[in-house]
Amino acid sequence: MRNTFYWLVSAGALLGVTLAADAAPLLLSGNNTGGDYPGAVAALATGATYNWLAGSDADVIAQDPGYTKMTDGMSEAAGGYGAVYGGWGTTATYTAVFDLKAAYQIDRVGVSAAFTFTDGNVDHSAGIGKLTVWTSVDGINYGTAWGQLLDPTPVDGRNIDLSVLAAPVDARYVKIEIDRIGSPGNTWYMQARTGEIAIFGGAIPEPLSLGLLTLGAAVLAVRRRR
Description:
Elements: H1 2-20, E1 26-27, E2 49-52, H2 58-63, E3 84-85, E4 94-115, E5 117-118, E6 121-122, E7 130-136, E8 147-150, E9 157-179, E10 193-202, H3 208-225
Antiparallel strand pairs: 1-10, 2-4, 3-10, 4-9, 4-10, 5-6, 7-8, 7-9
Helix pairs in contact: 1-3
């Protein structure tokens, strides 16, 4: 009976490791949760910062010199003060690079976008045609894109939540490219307007092998005490 009890305790600890991996994603990017985007969501204090990648749309860089508008909690609907506006008709994209200060498991990247319509039809004034996300553990090697949202369905509004979803990945750095143009000949807008960028995920789950090692150590300790 005694051995059974200790096995149950150890198995419960191992189960706890497994369940932790299934916890609801937390906000990792340090956004203000008191505004209209991403709103009052559960967050993990990571100390995250971001900057605009060199070569990004010059208008966007000029509008956000302090690197605060993508995490201030305000969408374009909040009056535009917390948003960035790409150059009108420019071919330049703009790319934010977030440093989460440590590696986390990334589950989703959300973007608050503004779309404009005229009588229910896209008038091509404002919108996002393509979102592309890369991740990296060292800030140097990004490899292929982690996820992409191409030609999102436009919905008239100034705080439209666009999400890039893919298989969870462990990373410290997250690079998000925003483009007013989608697939060739399909989706395009004159200007990409972005109110906020939010990154969601959590702590990197403990490997199952480590859990089994812990289980073995617990059983061994019990046997030594007998």
